[in-house]
Predict the structure.
Amino acid sequence: MSTNEMSKTLGPDGGGGALVVGWKANRWWIAGLIVLAVAPFLVYPIFLAKILCFALFAIAFNLLLGYVGLLSFGHAAFFGMAAYISGHVMKEWGVTPEVAILIATASMAVLGVVFGMIAIRRQGIYFAMVTLALSQMVYFLALQSEFTHGEDGIQGIPRGAFLGLVSLESSLSIYYFVAGVFVLGFLFVYRVIHSPFGQVLKSVRENEARATSLGYDTDRYKLLAFTLSATLAGLAGATKVLVFQLASLTDVTWQMSGEVVLMTLLGGVGTILGPVVGAGIVVSMHNLLAEIGSVTTIVQGLIFILCVLVFRRGVVGEVSAWLRRRRSTKKHPRAG
Amino acid sequence: MMEILGIPAPVFLGQLLLGAINGAFYAVLSLGLALIFGLLNLINFAHGTFYMLGAFVSWLGLRYLGIDYWTSLVVAPLAVALFGIVIERTMLKRLYDLDHLYGLLLTFGLALVIEGVFRQLHGASGQPYAIPSALSGGVNLGFMYLPVYRAWVILASLVMCLVTWLIIERTKLGALLRAATENPDLVRAFGVNVSLMITVVFGFGAALAAFAGVLAAPIYSVNPIMGANLIIVVFAVVVIGGMGSIMGAILSGFLLGLVEGLTKVYWPEASSVVAFMVMAVVLMVKPAGLFGRNA
Amino acid sequence: MTRESLLVLRDLQTWYGESHILHGVSLDVAEGEVVTLLGRNGAGKTTTLKSIMGLARHRRGSVAFGGQETVHLSPNRIARMGIAFCPEERGIFSSLNVRENLTLPPVIRDGGMSLDEVYDLFPILLERGGSVGTKLSGGEQQMLAIARILRTGAKFLLLDEPTEGLAPVIVEQIGRIINVLKERGYTILLVEQNFRFASTVADRHYVVEHGRIVDEVSGNAVSSNREKLEAYLGV
């Protein structure tokens, strides 16, 4: 099957070269960092930390869908399992948060290799079903194993102290910790996308047969991309546990896998900022609709349908398309 | 007491029977999924929802309109087919020229909406549906007790699968369907309205799922999420069987049900994941699936 | 032209996605005629057939069949007007056996051949009836692809390179079949790269280049125009 349609939704960051240089390009990065730094004084920091965790999760997912054209319907497995592992080692072994995150993230790299090797045996549309089935296996394992505490989940996880020195117990300190992790993850994905490796991924997405004929072992590239994506999803899950001090079944369900798909689709598939915007909208929506039972699910479903039928570029995709149109009419004013 | 492979015979056969029943549902559902996939290139995430709708329509019908089980067995699939047809005509139709992933995402959204609506209206707890009197009770076979309704479910599913298979493999209509699955444009160029065929097949697939739902209503409680968890196992079944083959979908459905039943006997903790483990093994050994022609 | 045109193309333009393939094809085919489209690979011959059939959806201009405009119609509607199509890749279905392949296209009007007549013309198909369609040899598959559209009652046939990749004996056989069909009153628009073959069956030839008709040669003038045609076809 072709993934060209998805590639058409590529935003302005899709094609770029090396890391941007100069003030004119850097001003966006600086503005972003300032927003991250100031935001917790304007909005409830835990809410922001939640958004950042999900944004990182969605960025990880988008690395696979947006840049390789593979739709994983099982990314909750990595997100949720990392949460359990990180929570477990924090609570039972008493390690510091950064060690817990490292252990959990590394475990998801291993799980990513295993699942990736199974899932890339099938192309395109099958890939979604295989990843969904594999993640359902993880869900049942989480339901039945002892260390996850089944339906109860791991509760009362301490936030600990960063490097054993800086306590993360206050809302502000945990927020800045999460923001730090998010920025690192974001930069990492940005570099990957704009590296030669990222270029190969894009050529696999556009035309796998051609990439193969050019001598690329596309399966290896796909496996590596899948593993990176799983690892980052794990990083997001492990970090999220610190914020909420709880690891529960919710994070390993297929609904959670669906949610990250929604965030990416709504924000803009294949754009670097799309997943962040999508995560912001979906998390805010959850907070607004939390009171009214199944309404969240219904609204999510409706957004899915709308996105697919009329809004395939997502918020960021639409905005950047609009900006490009405006810029080109400025450059080439109509002859009159 | 007689034993089979170290297990008391009634226990062993009882689990095997449960496995066969699950297998029957897997088979009917994966058959519809494979049919739809063949012609529409669509993985229908809402297939489990159609199954749930089948069960719910018959429960609502009995409760509010007094429609009995036997009438439901015909009416509920028809109603769900009609619903599926409306979905196909109004939404799916717009996506055929796009990446196939969009169809999956759309049906996922539909599943969320429909299940959410039913949960809002009826809550998440199950509603009981009585076994029709003609099928209640059981027969003592000497080595085990066989509830009549369970035997009926297996029989009805088998017949439904075989009839569908015969239509596809042995009739003119089936030949058109197979041809359109291979090369829809050429079949159009022969003067066949393939778009209409697509609509009908989607409706029929939905009806099959709803039929399974009606059969399931007296066994499991009727609840809004009954299809969501089932459909993921059915996806695994379909990957195991290979989407290309109708018989493959049917056989792997029954086979996987039996494997699950056996796992319940020997390793109960693994019974809920055995389907996925089998899928992983099949993918490593034979990526195209047991009956598939190619990936 | 003495007879009335059955098919009239005027300024037909066709796109595949972004690429513009046909840049205004105009041609006429009269009832009972056998006409070929000659040209190199990628000249737009197949696209012309697919545009007539409606299989190339993005098209503009005029395609009138029997006086009725069809450029906005879907392939199944066009087929029902009495046009039948035999694709270059033959399109034999691998999940159908020979008999099923043969009887697959629905009969759209009276006047088609009966199954017996088809078997008379293609005895090999009766012999191989039960085997899987794609297990046949290339020549047999081509026979099957032509045979199956003769039953439908369509009297206007679009044949896309029926001789491609076939042994000379088979090519000869196909030539005979086309002549039989012509005697029976079929009208045929044929795509060919092999103009020696084309000259044995066709009344007229159009030369297609870069999505346009660049020349027209009548059947009996082929030998006198040999050099020119060879230059067009690059042989």
About this structure: The mean pLDDT of chain B is 90. Chain B has one domain: 3-123+135-285. The two ends of chain B are 48 Å apart (CA to CA). The longest strand of chain B covers residues 138-140.
